[in-house]
């Protein structure tokens, strides 16, 4: 994987996670699930390892990772309370 391919991968993931945050805020759970699948496919290349980046490319990668993490936090801010409600609803009544 070239450095340009690495950046393209992270840019795609950042865009997808941004759309995931929107889907979560809008309660579009089917859309969120589809986007999660797309994100997993795009990020699968990183599991094999990516070459280290230097200079401006490294800074861009860091910025993209921060954006991805912020998008993930937005999704979790919506889904975690909902999952807690679901968990409580699924517990047997005493």
Write up what this structure looks like.
- The structure is a single chain.
- The chain has 94 residues and is an all-alpha fold.
- The chain is 84% helix and 0% strand.
- The protein is built from three helices and no strands.
- The chain has helices at residues 3-26, 29-47, 55-90.
- The longest helix is centred in the last third of the chain and has 36 residues, at 55-90.
- The termini are far apart.
- The model has no long low-confidence stretch (mean pLDDT 89).
SSE layout:
Layout: H1 3-26, H2 29-47, H3 55-90
Helix pairs in contact: 1-2, 1-3
Mean pLDDT level:
89
Helix content: over 70%
Query: Structural class, from helix and strand content?
Result: mainly alpha
Secondary-structure element string: HHH
Approximate strand percentage: under 5%
Q: Cα distance, first to last residue? A: 56 Å
Outline the low-pLDDT stretches.
none
Multimeric status of the protein: single chain
Main β-sheet, in a few words? none
Give the total of beta strands. Answer: 0
Shape: elongated
Count of DSSP-assigned helices: 3
The gyration radius over C-alpha positions equals 16 Å
